[in-house]
Structure prediction request, 426 residues.
Amino acid sequence: MTATVILGSQWGDEGKGKITDLYSENADVVVRYQGGNNAGHTIVVDGERFALSLIPSGVLYPQVTPVIGNGTVVDPAVLLREMDELTERGIDPSRVRVSGNAHVIMPYHRKMDAVLERYLGEQQIGTTKRGIGPCYMDKFSRFGIRMQDLFDPKIFRKKLEVALKDKNRQLTKVYNQLPLDLDEIYEEYLIYAARLDGHITDTSLLVWEAIHGGKNVLFEGAQGTLLDIDHGTYPFVTSSNPTAGGAVTGSGIGPRDLDRVIGVAKAYISRVGTGPFPTELLDETGDRMIEIGGEYGVVTGRRRRCGWLDAVALRYSARVNGLTEIAFTKLDILSHFDPIKIAVAYESGGTRYDEFPRQQSVLYHCTPIYEELEGWNVDITKATSFDNLPDAARRYVERVEELCGVRVSSVGVGPGREATLMRPDQ
Ligand code: GDP
Ligand code: IMO
Ligand code: MG
Prediction:
């Protein structure tokens, strides 16, 4: 009866997978609306760990129809592998539905991702090298191949010929690489298509019927607001719209169909790859945050950069997404820190910035203005309700609410499904 977006409000890895899984208990449909297998979502159920990159986190519940929407980019080999892995662990992936309009990641996209990063040298973005950016490039330059194309061999071959001619020219003439073979790719992708037949459908209609049939629908964002191609720290971003608007275009519904927008925010911040990060801690405190928080990438295994919570960025995220609430995760990690800092504004060249600066160069050179809060120094991983948390922990959460103007509706105290303290509407 509600349509809820769950999205990242920082630079990704906020714990979206865990929160989506939690809300999926009462969901009928869970839709991924952007990104591809650059995402890495970890869910822990009864101590068992699931790492998903493309299939929506709701798949672990048998009543959920997991949907991969038109706004995503799909690497069919990865999708099939993920389905096989779920089957091996006793979860039925036959329910997964994929939009015929979703774009297909091709071998030349992965190759271009790697050579473009090499070309950028010191300016490189630090992408996941999964071909995400080049696939979206083809989508917008109208060279793209969509899932539906794979089911018409004649059309597929024609489109592949055009796209590959262009890519091989670039690969050989500009980047000094060997060309890719048309027949090899063609045969490989027809095999994927045969296996995916039955999963491809009009997901826009499926989602619309679910919403208007009184079902609970979740929209699961990947990446985060500050990695958004329009609203993030461009060019150090991903190539899609993780923000709430992306849920609308990326799944083919209207904005009036949405009821709630939950921003997942970690109690501190992490970032993978390059780009500005005002509250980054390049000291022993930062190292401890990475180790205690287990901040290593699910997809690439890279060490994540970490720093104090940035309330300026979170307020920005609340605005551009129209957040109705915040799911606050990993509060338990901050039990090991005292005092705890929150950036409430930035300072640069004698100017104070209370709002996220419109000129990105400010983000590189600014100094965060911190507010210090008292730590609580006790283990909170066994806490069973928000009211039973130490006073200092509650004060930290309440201060975040004040600074962002958005209610914190849940607090995470551990990676497990059960380690989330819900705060019902007062
Ligand atoms: P996502 O990409 O936003 O889904 O997040 P990731 O799965 O990449 O990273 C979040 C990590 O934090 C995962 O390892 C989760 O299991 C873990 N996690 C999520 N919520 C909590 C929490 O409240 N406490 C702790 N300690 N770990 C959490
Ligand atoms: P989840 O869903 C954190 C980052 C990459 C790089 C930039 C562009 O797990 O939160 P791309 O391969 O998308 O072209 O890389 O975006 N990035 C992520 N960082 N979490 C993610 O996903 C990310 N997906 C991409 O590190 O800086
Ligand atoms: Mg992740």
About this structure: The first helix runs from residue 16 to 24. The chain has a mean pLDDT of 96.
